[in-house]
Amino acid sequence: MSSAEPLGEGRWRELARQALARLLRTYGSAQFDLCEDAVQDALLQAYQQWPARSPDDPLAWLIATARRRYADRARSDARRRDRETRAALSQPTQAPEVAQRDDSLLVLQLCCHPELPRSGQVALTLRAVAGLSTAQIANAYQLPERTIAQRITRAKRRLGELGQPLPQPAAAGERVTAVLDVLYVMFSEAHHTTAGAPARDADLAVEAMHLTRLLRRGVPESTEVTGLLALMLLTEARHPARVGPDGRLTSLDEQDRALWNRELISEGIGLVEQATAGAEPGPYLIQACIAALHAEASDIAATDWVEILALYRLLEIVTGHRNPTIALNRLVAQAMVDGVDVALGQLDALEADHPGLPRLNAVRGHLLEQAGRPDDAAGAYRRAIAATINLAEQQHLRHRVRRLSGAPADPVQGPSR
Fold first, then answer.
1. Cβ–Cβ < 8 Å for 222, 173
2. Mean pLDDT computed over every residue of the chain
């Protein structure tokens, strides 16, 4: 043991994910709940002990402790005592050489079990492996928390019914679509947190990008994997101008683009150029192309809005017009190309089909402000404030209302998605 240095949230998540991977590979999908509980027990013990003295190999310590806790829990269940105790006691208590392997990507693939429906795969993996709360997952999909909780419960029950070890993927690209969905939600939550306090989860953003890089190493030929990594890099590049030192947010049209990270932009655009040649368009690659056009422009006026509008229309087609948020984003580009009145008319139609769509009133306020209708814009912003629980969004929208009313403005202005 050695003197402890505080671990960041990202490191705790990584350790928990890899420990869960070891237990799942050892004890199988039928014991998912038991493995998850054992890892949580080990993490609690680590939180209590490590501040004073930390182990030389934190992962090996966590795995060994989780295995002991698994054995303790298994022995307490009379129906499974003999089988699970033998399995637990057959494993070595320490395996430092094995613990050095990075199972981060493997555990995502393991939990995206092909016997589960896609919705169950993603929800379970986001909760158990990525560490997102039910509320965060529900926010990402704009669904009630109870719906997400039911998906997770059903997925765990189905894994238990299978009664066999989680099948290890035969290739890095196996189950890649579900894994991409998990990584996208992780990064989206990092970039725009559910509560908005803080506005950005830096550890989660780094973790999502790390996992996506691992996935790309395994399937470098996948244009969607490359597209997602490019999208993350191009989005992350704007962070220095989007979130100030006090956690306040600045909208895209007001950001100081000199603060954007040009190294990340260069890498992201390079990936987009590499992936688009002859590629069949997928949703992540299309979004990366949109982000690249923003990154290449010197300001809002110089942005190629015609191309961005075309890409949003393509994105709607590729996703089967199932995501109204894409249509909402498309209307912002529509206003820049065809005028605000056209966009407002289409926004009315979108609201009729999807009442209560998140951010709809914020976009309406933005368009009305562009149209020179300050009173109507302020009303839309107020409705948006009442509809969001995100503190950073509320702060931004209140600033917009104050600005329209001529009240003193905050020094830092509005957010960008």
1. yes
2. 85
Query: Using an 8 Å Cβ cutoff, are 20 and 107 in contact?
Result: yes
CB 104 within 8 A of CB 18: yes
d(CA 29, CA 10): 25
Q: In terms of Cα–Cα distance, which of 57, 54, 51, 24 is closest to 39? A: 24
Look at 166-170, 240-244, 389-393 and tell me which has the smallest mean pLDDT.
166-170
Where along the chain do its domains lie? 1-101
Reported as a pLDDT band with limits 50, 70 and 90, residue 196 is confident
Q: Lowest-confidence range among 16-25, 171-180, 206-215, 309-318? A: 16-25
Length of the chain: 417
Q: Any idea which of 328-337, 373-382, 403-412 has the lowest mean pLDDT?
A: 403-412
Q: How far apart are the first and last CA of the chain?
A: 44
Neighbour-count burial for 303-319, b at 16+ CB within 10 Å, e otherwise = bebeebbbbbeebbeee
Digit-coded pLDDT (tens) for 117-152: 989 999 988 887 788 889 999 999 989 999 999 999
Which pair of tokens denotes residue 186?
């992780």
Q: Are 200 and 184 in contact (CB under 8 A)?
A: no
Torsion angles phi and psi, residue 249, rounded to 5: -110, 150
If one compares 265 and 3, the residue with the highest pLDDT of the two is: 265
The listed range with the strongest mean pLDDT (45-49, 170-174, 341-345) is 341-345
pTM (2 decimals)? 0.80
- pLDDT exceeds 50 at position 408: yes
The DSSP symbol for 116 reads: S
Residue (of 387, 351, 386) closest to 367 by Cα position: 351
Between CA 136 and CA 195 the distance in angstroms is 9
Distance CA 13, CA 33 (A): 18
For residue 238, what are the CA distances in angstroms to 257, 371, 417?
Answer: 8, 27, 11
* Residues 248 and 290 sit within 8 Å (Cβ to Cβ): no
Distance (Å, whole) CA 390 – CA 384: 11
Measured CA angle at 86 (ends 80, 88), to 5 deg: 90
Which residue reads 């158990």 in tokens?
Answer: 128
Spatial separation of the C-alpha atoms in residues 390 and 398, rounded to whole Å = 12
Q: Which residue has the tokens 């997925």?
A: 155
Please name the residue that has the structure tokens 């890649």: 176
Largest CA distance in the chain: 74
The secondary structure of the chain in percent helix, strand, coil, rounded to multiples of 5, reads 70, 0, 30
